[in-house]
Write a structure and sequence with these properties.
Shape: globular
Keywords: Cytoplasm, Disulfide bond, Electron transport, Redox-active center, Transport
Number of domains: 1
Low-confidence stretches: none
Mean pLDDT: 97
Strand order of the largest sheet: 2-1-3-4
Organism: Rhodothalassium salexigens DSM 2132
Number of helices: 4
Function: Has a glutathione-disulfide oxidoreductase activity in the presence of NADPH and glutathione reductase. Reduces low molecular weight disulfides and proteins.
Radius of gyration: 12 Å
Family: Belongs to the glutaredoxin family.
Protein name: Glutaredoxin
CATH topology: Glutaredoxin
CATH class: Alpha Beta
CATH architecture: 3-Layer(aba) Sandwich
Distance between the termini: 6 Å
Amino acid sequence: MADVEIYTKEFCGFCARAKKLLRAKNVGFKEIPIDMEPRRRPEMIERAGGKTTVPQIFIGGEHVGGCDELVALDRAGKLDALLEA
């Protein structure tokens, strides 16, 4: 199973939706709450190629985007293969 990291904020509906999808697939993930750890925000922006919104999701060290991109991967049948890599 690939390592999954997700940068989040506490009251973010998109973050909650992404985490719900990952949990539904029984995928463990490392959550990095940038509102509780603001020093991690520049790290997120750099890793995400300048993106500043949350969530920012990384699977196997590769940036996959935010919630919309994660859902799109799942709908296209590509998320499971990414998670298994």
